[in-house]
Every structure is written in structure tokens, then in C-alpha cells.
Design goal:
The complex is a heterodimer of chains A (about 270) and B (about 160). Chain A has about 270 residues and is of the alpha+beta class. About 15% of the residues of chain A have low confidence. Chain A is globular, with a radius of gyration of 23 Å. Chain A contains 4 helices and 13 strands. Helix content of chain A is about 30%, strand content about 20%. In chain A, strand 6 and strand 7 form a beta hairpin. Chain B is mainly α and about 160 residues long. Chain B contains 9 helices and no strands. In chain B, helix 1 crosses helix 7, helix 2 packs across helix 4 and helix 7 packs across helix 9. The C terminus of chain B is likely disordered. At the A-B interface, helix 1, helix 2, strand 5 and strand 9 of A face helix 1, helix 2, helix 4, helix 5 and helix 6 of B.
């Protein structure tokens, strides 16, 4: 039914850029590298365990002097966290901390904002009042691309819309073997894009396109490990195309930027 | 992977390459992104080739990987989405009958990624409601509701094309 019409839409296939031979070659190299890395890690762990054992039993080497309790000033605790997803457990833990950082940033920058259930919104959302539950990507072979994403509906000062968070791979060739366009420069085809810098010095891209009634504000912030954190807010409530555009975005562009900077500041390499 | 398995993989992939590229293009309507999606799919299939070979229906497995890669990408790649050279113009509404490729292209652009995937799986690849639900990891009810409007317009298209 309608298949011919679909085929007409596709038209003539252009030459393929899918390099199957290259993908297979790359995957074989990765597989070999993983085996070598695993062996090296095991050897290093063995060495560390041995050294630690010697130190704890008063073996060779000078021991460091004992610390003086209560002396000097206490450094502020480092609440930052790394985004890791080498297993289901670490990925879930990272996603949870990232969601908590997002929730804290929203509460700080937009104290009156409330998370609301978003019908047909992508990802896991709702019920009302619950921060988004972020999804994560643990690679099929246990090697993760360490990507996270999700979002929720958001209501602020009577304006309803959606907020999305995503962590994208570092620029260049992604873990999936696909080359991505170089980041941190506004591509000529991207409308309403501004290159900038976060208070931390990280590179940023800010985008504010408008399609019809739908206004979006989005910012990408470079993370310490080269990946990017993306926060987008729009007045489109629900999945694209099925949602109804609201009169205004629930958050201002400045709030979106501040939220992204706050979350990014919590992430370490 | 043994050489024989690798030969099997290459044969399988090359036999389905055009179909995957067509499907990916219908999902994103951009050949660069379509080929990226297929590359991701090929990579994932290679990594899991043993599981793919053991699957009851390899093609459904591959389609699942492709469709979910599309949904993942559409959630992440907002910049690419925003850079569409030809966004749907303001005020365009779905006509009663889709009679040409431009109208179909516009129709697909008005839909969210998941709804677009439902349409392509149901009406281009002829998967059943249950198969589509399984591939996209959504409920049968969601497939039915999301394809209702598309079904209506594509039925009109089928009539127009004398099918």
C-alpha cells in the first residue's frame, strides 16, 4: 500500500558512502585493542595490588607521614562526577547523577519550574513532579559509547514546553565508527547559531531556530573529555509534529544557558 | 570472527544494502544521515553477528537495529535536524489525498521520528502492527494510533496510484 509512492520519494539511490569493508576493518582493530587493553589492565592491577600489599605490610619504600587530624583548612568536597557506562550498573548510576544534576540546575535557575508529564514525548517522562529519567547506551560488547539522554515536559510561569538533555560523543569518529561533523563551529547550514564560551572556558554553541510557532533554544557545552552536553528547550509540548506549540518557551534562553553551564560544571573527565 | 562468518556477513549486508538505505532515507530524508544510520546499523550487526545469525528472523533483527538507531539519532542530533535545508513551511496541513512525492515528503516531515518510523515500517516495509510494535519497542495500541492518520492518507495515495 503506497509502496510505489515511497519509492518515488526515495528516487534514484546516490552512490553509497557506507564503507562496509572499512567498518569491518575498524571493528577488528577495536576488538584486538580491547583484548590488549584488557591484558594490560590486568597486569597493571596485579602490580598495583602487589605494591599496595607491600606498603600496608610495612614493606619496601618510604611510607608517607600520617596526616594530622583537624589541622589546616578543609577543602570543599568535590561533588563532580564522571559519566561512565562500562556496565549496566555504572551507566545507570551515571544517568541517575546526571538527572539529579539537571534537576538541581533547573531548580536553581528557574525556581518556579515544575517537571510535568509529557504525552508522546520521547524518552521516559512523568508523572508530574518527577525529574526525567535519562536513558543510557551500554555497548553490546560491554564497551559503551557513554551516551545519555532524555527529557520531560516542563511548566514555568504558566508556559508549558519540553526540555531535553543529551550527551554526544567527542567530535571526530564516534564509537560507532561514523565520522561526525567537527563540533564547536556553526555549520553554514545551521540557522541562528552562535559560537561562544562557558564561564568555565568550555566551548559552546547556542542555537535558537524557530519553525512556525515552534521556538527552540539549545546549547551544547564541551565537556572535559571532549564530549558535548546538550540542553534544548522548546515550546512544543509532546513529540515533534504531534505536540501543540505553546505561546512561549517555559525557560528563557539565558536560563537554558545557565542550566547547561551548571550541569556541565558537575561533570569531570 | 571466522573467515566463513565474515563472508556470510558481507553477503548478507550487500544483499540488503539498497533496502536499508531506502528505508533510512525515508526515515530521515537526507542521504548523508541515511548512510550514517546504515553505517551504524552495519557496525552493530557486525559486533553481534553471532546473535544475528542465530535470530529467527535476521531481517527483522536488522530492521530493529536500524529503526532504533534512527530514534536514538533523532533524539541526539538536534543540530542536524535544525539544519534541514527545507523545513516544512508554516501553515501546510496534510491534504486528504497524498498524490505525489512532494506531499509524501511533507507529510513525513510533519511527523515525529517515531511516528515516521511507524509509517515506514507499516506501509513501506509491510510489517504487521505486532511486528512494528516489537521492532520499535512500543505497544500495539501506540502503533495503531500513530499510524491511523498515515493509513488514511496512504490509502488515498494507493487509490490515486491505481493499486
Amino acid at each position: 500500500m503506497g509502496t510505489d509512492l515511497f519509492d518515488q520519494l526515495v528516487g534514484e539511490l546516490p552512490p553509497s558512502t557506507v564503507d562496509v569493508v572499512g567498518i569491518v576493518r575498524r571493528e577488528k582493530r577495536r576488538s584486538t585493542a580491547r583484548r590488549v587493553t584488557g591484558l594490560a589492565t590486568a597486569v597493571a592491577a596485579l602490580g598495583l595490588t602487589t605494591a599496595l600489599g607491600l606498603s600496608m605490610t610495612g614493606g619496601t619504600g618510604a611510607s608517607s607521614p600520617p596526616s594530622v587530624a583537624g589541622g589546616g583548612t578543609t577543602a570543599a568536597p568535590d561533588t563532580r562526577f564522571a559519566l561512565v557506562a562500562q556496565s549496566e550498573e555504572t551507566a545507570a548510576a551515571s544517568a541517575k547523577r546526571l538527572a539529579a544534576a539537571l534537576d538541581a540546575a533547573v531548580r536553581k535557575e528557574a525556581p518556579d519550574a515544575k517537571w510535568i508529564f509529557e504525552p508522546d514525548g520521547s524518552g521516559r517522562t512523568g508523572p508530574d513532579g518527577r525529574p526525567p529519567t535519562l536513558s543510557y547506551d551500554v555497548g553490546p560488547d560491554g564497551k559503551s559509547k557513554e551516551l545519555f539522554g532524555g527529557g520531560s515536559g516542563i511548566l514555568n510561569e504558566g508556559r508549558k514546553g519540553s526540555l531535553r538533555l543529551g550527551v554526544e560523543p567527542a567530535e571526530g569518529v564516534g564509537e560507532d565508527g561514523v565520522r561526525r561533523p567537527s563540533s564547536w563551529k556553526c555549520a553554514p547550514t545551521v540557522r541562528k547559531c552562535t559560537e561562544g564560551t562557558a564561564p568555565s572556558g568550555a566551548k559552546t554553541l547556542f542555537l535558537s531556530p524557530k519553525y512556525g510557532d515552534v521556538q527552540m533554544y539549545g546549547i551544547e557545552v564541551q565537556l572535559p573529555d571532549g564530549r558535548s552536553l546538550r540542553i534544548t528547550v522548546s515550546n512544543n509540548f509532546g513529540d515533534k509534529g504531534t505536540g501543540a506549540a505553546q505561546p512561549g518557551t517555559p525557560l528563557t534562553s539565558d536560563q537554558v544557558k545557565a542550566i547547561a553551564f551548571d550541569v556541565a560544571a558537575q561533570i569531570k573527565a | 570472527m571466522k573467515p566463513a562468518d565474515e563472508d556470510d556477513f558481507h553477503a548478507y549486508v550487500s544483499a540488503r544494502m539498497d533496502r536499508w538505505r531506502r528505508t533510512a532515507y525515508l526515515l530521515c530524508q537526507d542521504w548523508h544521515t541515511a548512510d550514517d544510520l546504515v553505517s551504524i546499523t552495519v557496525t552493530k550487526l557486525f559486533r553481534n553477528w553471532r546473535k544475528v545469525r542465530a535470530a529467527d528472523n535476521r531481517d527483522a533483527y536488522a530492521q530493529r537495529v536500524l529503526s532504533r538507531s534512527w530514534l536514538d539519532e533523532s533524539r541526539r542530533a538536534f543540530r542536524r535536524e535544525w539544519s534541514q535545508a527545507d523545513p516544512v513551511e508554516v501553515g501546510w496541513s496534510v491534504p486528504d489525498r497524498i498524490t505525489d512525492r512532494e506531499s509524501l515528503a511533507r507529510l513525513l516531515k510533519t511527523l515525529g521520528p517515531r511516528q515516521r518510523a511507524v509509517l515506514v515500517l507499516r506501509f513501506y516495509l509491510d510489517y504487521s502492527v505486532e511486528e512494528t510494535a516489537e521492532i520499535l519497542h512500543i505497544s500495539v495500541g501506540t502503533v495503531k494510533s500513530q499510524s491511523a492518520r498515515g493509513l488514511e492518507t496512504l490509502r488515498a495515495a494507493a487509490v490515486s496510484f491505481g493499486k
